[in-house]
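Q: Fold this one first, please.
A: Sequence and structure below.
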Amino acid sequence: AKWSQDLKEWWVQGAPLPWQKTVWTHLVRPAQGAIPAYSAIARFAADTGKEEKRYTGEPGEKIDIARGPYLIPVATGSVLFLSRKAGETIGFDLRLLGSDGVLAWQKKYEGLRLSVVHWDKVHRKLFVGVERRENNNVVASSLICIDPVQRKEEWRSEFGTKWPSQIASGTNNIYVIRNVPGGAKELIALQLKDGVLLWKKDFTSHDIR
């Protein structure tokens, strides 16, 4: 091995993210007695393994998404990630960590559950499917397009009670599988630039997997 790094009580979670001459890594320190678990993001020099920067979240914070990558490269060495309180499924933060290891931008999404996350590395856009539930029934959902370079929410397409479960992006369009109450599914196409619905196809006699 060219180099190794002893992280002591920290564990590596997910795949490391190489970026030019550095490597970003998602770290987790398990709870120890009364001390809560911690999550962190560290950057190492690719040639030497020297730790250059480390961002540590709040006690009990979980830098984690169930349906997407842990770390997303943005530009000039920045990384984008989603964070939430450990053990909670409602509410999350979208955060941008600068190349200096300092939190550069964040946006809170309170009262919403993540349903799907898709990073379009060609257009450098993050698509986040969210839903709001009452008595375990979806009462509202939407697809959000985020431009992390400009640090803003670019558009939001409202889906009502049909929640997104899978996303794929093309040259000009984005394609979404929506779950429909009752068990059916829909395939829809939206314009990538503004989220306007182009067409939809219902699937009631057979399933999409």
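Q: Good. Now the second chain.
A: Here it is, same layout.
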Amino acid sequence: KLMINNLEEFSMYKIDTYFLMPRRVVDVLFHKKLNSNYSGNFHKDFPECCYVHISDAVKVKELIKTKDLEPRNVECCIVIKNSDETLLGFGTDGLDFWNDILYSLQNLLTNSVSDRILGIDYLSLRIEIKDNKTLEWKIYNESEDLPNQIYYSATVDSISFIQAIVTAGKDYYETMHTYFPEELHFKEKKEMLQEIGEQLQELWKAK
């Protein structure tokens, strides 16, 4: 099992998963709250109108009932904070983010850098092992219009950050399996993430 060597460092990370409210609902709230002069990112500025937390079972089950949340195409937002620093936040959302994070960590077992698309849009997630103690985390734009525009960037403690990511990811997959018990791939991904976390920790300890 993953060993938490520094509980204080581990607890500094707060990681939450949210599902997107249907566009038809968000549009109604948008027009109620704002006038036509607003030009900001509504999802970022008013997350309470746009997202449902994964633990809000009543609202999540309603999304499932209306087929606005489906197990094979999970449109979500992951908010990752390290004390006052945001590593991923509201307004940045897409399909199957947790799967992309999982495979990014898997890449680190054989490479010092993982660089892959986050979701199916223009975002990329880059994780680079600086040494056995720190990682560089970066979310950036890979489109031709805005090449290499960085949205989030941070250097984090490798072991405590991976422990936090693995714990949050396992909670996500376990909760999704509860919502969709017939979908066995959530249970498989949880076990896969646990194994990757253990292997990464052993790899860095050996250095």
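Q: Anything worth noting on the second one?
A: Strands lie at 13-20, 51-53, 75-82, 85-88, 94-95, 113-117, 123-129, 134-141, 150-157.
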